[in-house]
Amino acid sequence: MKTANHFYCVKIVDEKKLEVAYQHLNTLHLHHFIHLILNNEQHYFTPFQDQYIYLMPYLQEDNHIKEMKIKTYYQILAYLHNHSFFMQHEEDAFFKKQYDDLFSLIQSKEKMIMKN
Fold it and tell me: Directed axis angle between helix 92-115 and helix 70-83, to 10°?
């Protein structure tokens, strides 16, 4: 989505429980993740038809914003696992989807490198 001054990314999800996990991450004051934008009711997720949408800044490579490296992603997850005070139960399918998404990202980056 483009406004007069910025680009934004609108994401659609099926469940709102991801918002709770995001709020827990915010309590840790980590600056490694992209911050979501609050709606007018001060919530991150907005009901949309039978789903929810959220808004975040769109990161463009030509703006020289560093892409978070896979190693850093896992370091942050390990830190959260060892230092967080909240419990979050996720189904195995959630982690499988994360793995598949990361693997797909790695493959697409490798293809881009091979083309150049």
Answer: 160
